[in-house]
Amino acid sequence: MASYKRYFNVLLDAVSANHNYTKYLDLLDIDGKLLVVGLPQEQPKNSRFSLINNRRSIIGSMIGGIKETQEMLDFCALHNIVSEVEVVPMSAINEAYERMIKGDVKYRFVIDTSTLQ
Hints:
Number of helices: 4
Order of helices and strands: EHEHEHEHE
CATH class of the largest domain: Alpha Beta
Distance between the termini: 43 Å
Shape: globular
CATH superfamily of the largest domain: NAD(P)-binding Rossmann-like Domain
Structural class: alpha/beta
Oligomer: single chain
């Protein structure tokens, strides 16, 4: 991540687990924004200096409306931004759940509903 320090204008953080925002704030350039849409149970930790350096900010919403959701989808389509997910067949749902409990998930799981019997 060091090679991307002060590289991005906006980062989308959709992680609902407890984590430290500092390493992501450090990736933002001048006036960069960390857009948070996943709420962890505990108040997130971050370095105050990571915020005031280069006028960075943390912004977000607990839930977006239809208009905001459509704007986000349009923006992603325009810029070819896609999510990284692990597709799981329904037959592996119990294994996926156990992996989630253990924290052995790199991306979000998506259940392939075409595998429903």
